[in-house]
Amino acid sequence: MRLWLKDPLAILAEGAERGIVVEGSQIVELVPAGREPGAPVDKVFDASRHVVLPGLVNTHHHFYQTLTRAHPDACDQPLFPWLKTLYPIWSRLDPDSFRLSVRLALVELLMSGCTTAADHHYVFPKGLENAVDIEVEEARKLGIRMTVSRGSMNLSQKDGGLPPDSVVQDEDTILADCERVAGAYHDTRPGAMTQIAFSPCSPFSVTKELMRKTADLAERFDCRLHTHLAETHDEDDFCLATYKCRPIELLDEVGWMSPRTWLAHGIHFSADDCTTLGRHGVGVCHCPTSNAVLASGFCHTGLLEKAGAPVGLGVDGSASNDSSNLMEGVRHALMINRLSHGAEAVSWRDCLRWASEGSARCLGRDDIGAVRAGLEADLALYTLDELRFSGAHHPIAALVHCGAHRADRVMVAGQWRVEDGLPVGVDLGALREAHGRVAAKFL
């Protein structure tokens, strides 16, 4: 079926003033001003109320943390004390609570306009060995694209690391499960709905040997590599004390300095570090909301992009962001980067690019992230009907400056997954009640 999304109020694409034509899972035609589609269409969707964006791509999250938002024991703490407080609480995760946390996070993301999500799951208490399988199942039910990052921690407190023994696994168990889930779920074809990444958690929770072996495994399965890096000064101090080198030097030493890698946060990089990362094509996921909540610092987005490093956007965990809304993250990126780099240095265009094309590059994908013929039909459509938009003169800029937070329509692979602001096939009331009931057990 050929579907014409006709005459949008505005669209983030050149030469598509009269909309786009979708056939199957792809965008097959942009319709410029004064023109009609080049071939007959089967159906027309009137987009005259809608601002059309490429589907947003979230490149860093921790879905399980939806169960511990605004937790009273962790509020108002910086990263290391925050983690030490929450690790014992997260050790109580079980398959049922985890499944609800994943479902809620994915629904939140979809409703904000996100069509591809990357989740970094690294907490594996006993009984939750099938966490990756649960995430894949939930993503498939909702019809959202997903890169499931099979995270890992094998350096516990008794070994000089940060996490307690109850949430870490041994190296053999980690590597065996990485092989299993990559073999079962990793799809390298264009238009893939599910991909796997390998993601040792951070320098203070994994060994160098595990990072080396994970890099070798990623080459074998053609998977991406992901980890937290340069998030806080505490991490710098830990690496210097433990490994006698800075985090970026550790990255090079374990064979991660390649275009296969994207990093979360990347705050405490020097100008030379940014140049090095750009030279090697290493991506960085900017997490502005989380960085502000934990007071971790400012990502050097401009220096990284100038050096050639892909820059993406992520909401980060719902216990440090307290939300899973990527469109809100776009606005936060604008505010925080202007505060850090100046009003003229960063525009709404930059922030939307990070949330779409930049994020797609971080995930190694060239089939999503833009409104372009031949790409997957992943689209987020917003209306400007709320009071917050009244008086706004640039429809696309208004989404960022005036604070859009909920999409009216979301399409993934040519299929509507959100209609009239509601996720298709999801009982929001029942989900809220079930998730809230389970979350109460984590107080």
From TrEMBL:
The UniProt GO MF terms for this protein read: 8-oxoguanine deaminase activity
InterPro entries on file: Amidohydro-rel (IPR006680), Metal-dep_hydrolase_composite (IPR011059), Metal_Hydrolase (IPR032466), MTA/SAH_deaminase (IPR050287)
Q: Has the keyword Oxidoreductase been applied to this entry?
A: no
Q: Where is the Amidohydrolase-related domain?
A: 51-415
Listed CDD domains: ATZ_TRZ_like
Name the SUPFAM superfamilies for this protein: Composite domain of metallo-dependent hydrolases, Metallo-dependent hydrolases
Chain segments annotated as coiled-coil in the UniProt record: none
Q: Does the keyword Metal-binding apply?
A: no
The record's listing under Gene3D superfamilies reads: Metal-dependent hydrolases, Urease, subunit C, domain 1
Enzyme Commission number, as recorded? 3.5.4.32
- Protein keywords: Hydrolase
Against NCBIfam families, the record matches this protein to:
PRK08203.1
Q: Which family does it belong to?
A: Belongs to the metallo-dependent hydrolases superfamily. ATZ/TRZ family.
Designated name of the protein: 8-oxoguanine deaminase
Q: What organism does the UniProt record list as the source? A: Labrys neptuniae
Lineage here is: Bacteria, Pseudomonadati, Pseudomonadota, Alphaproteobacteria, Hyphomicrobiales
